[in-house]
Design goal:
By secondary structure, this protein is an alpha/beta fold. The chain is built from ten helices and eight strands. It has an eight-stranded mixed β-sheet, with helices on both faces. The relative contact order is 0.20.
Amino acid sequence: MSRLMAIAGKGGVGKTTFAALALNYFLQREGPVLAVDADPNSNLPVSLGLKPELTIGEVLEEFMSAKFKLPAGMTRQNWLETRLNQAVIESRGLDLVVMGRPEGPGCYCSPNAVLRDFLDRLRGNYQWVVLDNQAGMEHLSRRTAGKIDCLVFVADPAVKSLRTVQSLKQLAGELKLEPAKMFLALNRAGKIEPRVEQLIKNLKLDFLGALPEDPAIAEYDLAEKSLLLLPPNSPALQASERILENLAKRV
């Protein structure tokens, strides 16, 4: 049974790092897995050591372009589905879809419906789908990803970051996303201040734990090296295994 994890949080708190570590965990234990990069900044491919040549946004832009010409003998829906399949980056046990930048002006109701059906069929091929979301939840609001089995809010141990989580949790309710489970995970966390502890309790989210500061993460990011290659003694990798084992038991 395929399960979808969506990751949300304030910009710069480490959502992409958490997504890469989650994909690594599920790949090693349950695979195959699908990564969906829904952040226009698109950092997840670098963190996974993959290079996208085509994004979903580019496919939709091409589809809606005034210069678009349908090949002979092909319906618009068949063309779109073919191009969407070409946007899937395949690797051993781990595939990637990059949503790309938001679409330009115009009605995307029809292609978004096709995209929704496409992702729904695609996710059936994987044990886990991990969606790295942008700071807001615009992509999730379109419902293109389908049913969310768990929504993980990632924050650093700072008041502003946790207040953003509170706002996003409220937004998830307003958008009626209705994830089966909602969790909180901290990143770059050492000793947690009492005020921060209280804010965590006030969120009333299932707290999974914290990833510590790990110099290897910064080094790999700087070198554009895949986080899937982190050494076994990496503190962040070890902590992520405990966190994700905790999550897997609750989903």
